[in-house]
Amino acid sequence: MKMNINALDRNEYFYGHKACAGCGGSLAVRAALKVLGERTAAVLPAGCMSAVGFNFPQLCFGNNAIISMFAGTASMLTGVEAGLRRKGHRDFHAVGFAGDGGTADIGIQALSGAIDRGDDIIYICYDNEAYMNTGIQKSGLTPYGARTTTTPAGANIHGNIRPKKNMFEIAAAHDIPYAATATVGYLNDFISKVEKASKIKGTKYIHVIAPCPTGWGIPVSDTVEVAREIVDCGLWYLAEYENGEYKLDRDPGEFASAENYLRRQGRFRHLTDQDIHTIITSRDRKWEKIRKEWK
Amino acid sequence: MKPYIREKSTFTFDEIPEETCFEAGYLVTVNSGWRSVTPYVDADRCIGCSQCYLYCPDGVISMDGKVPVLDYDFCKGCGICSKICPRQAIEMR
Lengths: 295, 93
Ligand SMILES: Cc1ncc(C[n+]2csc(CCOP(=O)(O)OP(=O)(O)O)c2C)c(N)n1
Ligand code: SF4
Ligand code: SF4
Ligand code: SF4
Ligand SMILES: [Mg+2]
Description:
Shape of chain A: globular
Helix content of chain A: 25-40%
CATH class of chain A: Alpha Beta
Strand order of the largest sheet of chain A: 4-1-5-6-8-7-9-10
Oligomer: heterodimer
Largest sheet of chain A: 8 strands, mixed
CATH topology of chain B: Alpha-Beta Plaits
Radius of gyration of chain A: 18 Å
Structural class of chain B: alpha+beta
Number of domains of chain A: 1
Bound molecules: thiamine diphosphate, iron/sulfur cluster, magnesium ion
Number of helices of chain A: 11
Number of domains of chain B: 1
């Protein structure tokens, strides 16, 4: 998708935050708010982005922003949107920034309810693939093989034994007006999708991969590079769901090496060749379907 | 509005708001102390492409026309700008 950097709001709305250096989640929040602008009410559940953004009196959002309880991102968005509308406000956005745990695990029923009601909100899941704020526990979006504190790597079990939940397709299965996947590695694509979502009525869901140097075991300078590699090697994909149809935005054709992607991260360092083979096989199976079914 | 540093950094108990709300963009501390390396832009190499501005997770780079300007008070020294630069115009030292 096309995007013009110069058209982007020059203002910063997420500034002075206490996220670790090189935090992918903070880049996602920053970029999205530059698209949505000041007339945006942001809802952030418990998780890294609320923890690093609100440390009274250090309040790092330049727009209206509020912390919700962990499970309640989408329900609070419903209330914020309805309340602002009832007070006569027009031309505003209600956006949520929830982590993978806050989205695919504890917050999934609130999100499902909001999509079902068709509430006019934008829900952005920044996916760092574990419960980072509480010290790297496995979530439903932690990928197969990843080491977390609750899925340790030992002689018998090599990290997480479950595959990553498919939140994008779960959101789409509600027949949502708009859903998309993205990565902070390709910000032009992410920004275009946020912009598109901001112009669609009803519930919008955007799932953005946001590497966490602390939890992934990568140098702080590598966040963007790794966030590109996950797409280039086919372990993540850039897609959209709109008007009842899936659309693949980018087919990498020949994949970059998934092994390189995995081996450069501390959380995957224990994987055997067999484990990597398992991951590549499941990637190829997924892509066979994607290429057949998504135009 | 861009969050900015305020004069008042400490509060007594009496001043802490009873409601769970407060002024947006209220900063009292900088992040420069987190940094162990610092990015420096070489103006001769820079082509003003804005990639560093776009990808800085802390939003501390702004473009003055074609020139990237860094707010060193809030740069954490992650080095993402240096890696993303297509001209190797940002050196970390
Ligand atoms: C009901 C409830 N249970 C548990 C917690 C503790 N808690 C706070 S943040 C967090 C992890 C959030 O993980 P995720 O949603 O993936 O966001 P991240 O921290 O990774 O950005 C947990 C478990 C809580 N605040 N509320
Ligand atoms: S732990 Fe990870 S997600 Fe949380 S602030 Fe640090 S880098 Fe960001
Ligand atoms: S080192 Fe990191 S925080 Fe500092 S300007 Fe570069 S990208 Fe931004
Ligand atoms: S990325 Fe490099 S070339 Fe582009 S504006 Fe920044 S310093 Fe200049
Ligand atoms: Mg998380």
